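Revision sheet: structure tokens.
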Amino acid sequence: METTPVFTSSNSIIGKQVQTKTESKIAAEYSVNNNNYETALQLYKSGSISQAEEVLEALIAKKQDSNYPCFLLLAKIFANKNQLDKSEKMCHKAIQSNKTSTEAHYLLASVYMEQGKSKEAVKSLHNTLFLDPDFVMAHFLLGNILKNTGETIQSNKHFGNALKSLAKYDNHEIIVESDGLTAGRLAEIINSIIPVKNAVEVR
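Predicted:
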């Protein structure tokens, strides 16, 4: 039987330096930071992590109106470097700058998981889902955590919610924060670990 993967900061959110739709949106929304932030983002995507970090820290030092995208990208960089305490701190700064950032809340949950702080991770995932009830990977990660703690009913609830959200996707669509998993593949994984009555077929 296939082992159920648990997606944490090391292998889903930050495992690949790929620009997501969310990152593109950040760059557009914060045009005042656009040039420097874009430089840092390109460095990050190309694997030049330390150089990207330098650019972001210099930008933050300028104390412009909002450093939210810089905090968020720095959180990813520190997590990539396994500097989890620093990543956690940057996640909190990102959330303070933008309390409705689902990406920051989800990243913080993943960092907490890497630190072995399951209770804090659950809280951050609930915050993520409060902001976006259809955040597939938040349901999936929460389902895994609850499954591992023996809370089967709640675990199956979140797996089921993930499947309901996945039903809105086409099979080939890549799910945000999934490290490249398609909707169809993720649905297969979830269907393999929950009761058959809860199974959902993705289009």
